[in-house]
Amino acid sequence: MKVLVASPVCNRAWIIREFLACLENLDKGEHQVDYYFIENGSTDETLAILWDHCDNKDGWTVGCMELQEPVYDRGESPVESLNRLAKIRDKIRTLAIAGDYDYLLSVDSDILVPTNLLVDLLAHEQHFVAATVANPAY
């Protein structure tokens, strides 16, 4: 099976290295897994960290927001924030369909996913499976 693991990313320099390490360590089973990160105007070092991590890795792609939407603004209203995020997630869904992926795992870039998450979700052989994942206490 072909799986796309995709994440919207903005201002996550504080955790992005740990997040990427978790994705590197995902048990993929026999599945082909590609990774796509859609960056939306970070003002910290997030984009540089992503580029550095993904450079020269097959199946690891960094994209930047191409919609005519404003980039992240900490002062935006909750409605504006949710609308922008919905458009980003729709772009991810569109990429998954266009890439002929069998499954899409969309995960926020501040969630440290457990190693077994992907194979456990795919084991259900359902069209839609959701999981709630929480970071361990620091």
Q: Any chance you could write out the topology, listing elements then pairs?
A:
Blueprint: E1 2-9, H1 16-24, E2 32-39, H2 46-54, E3 60-64, H3 78-98, E4 103-106, H4 117-122
Parallel strand pairs: 1-2, 1-4, 2-3
Helix content: 25-40%
Distance between the termini: 35 Å
Encode the helix/strand succession as letters. Answer: EHEHEHEH
Question: What is the count of DSSP helices, taking H or I runs of 4+ residues?
Answer: 4
Secondary-structure-derived class: alpha/beta
Largest sheet: 4 strands, parallel
User: What is the spatial order of strands in the main beta sheet?
Assistant: 3-2-1-4
Number of strands: 4
| Morphology | globular
Low-confidence runs of at least 5 consecutive residues: none
Provide the residue-averaged pLDDT. 85
What is the CA-atom radius of gyration, in angstroms? 15 Å
State which percent range the strand residues make up: 15-25%
Walkthrough of the structure:
The protein is α/β, with parallel strands linked by helices and 138 residues long. Helix content is 33%, strand content 18%. It has a four-stranded parallel sheet, sandwiched between helices. Helix 2 (46-54) links the parallel strand 2 (32-39) and strand 3 (60-64). The N and C termini lie far apart (35 Å). The mean pLDDT is 85.
